[in-house]
Amino acid sequence: PSFAALLDALPADATVAVDMPIGLPDVSQKGGRGPEALVRPLLGNRQSSVFAIPSRAALYAHTDGFTTIEAWYA
After folding, report:
1. Which residues 6+ apart lie within 8 Å of 27 measured at CB?
2. pLDDT tens, position by position, 43-74
């Protein structure tokens, strides 16, 4: 099943709210994607609840050569 299949199974007038990013950006920038950066100021003290998602390249990067146990706990 896919997200598209789920949407296709719903009535045409259904409202869907998703609290997870769908897909990964090819690149990322400081502050995240445009929608994330735009909504944070509107949330005041709750702005830290909007997370910037990493890029696809960051998630699939091979880090064996430069990641150390010390870096994980720094």
Report:
1. 55, 57
2. 999 998 888 888 888 888 887 777 677 776 76
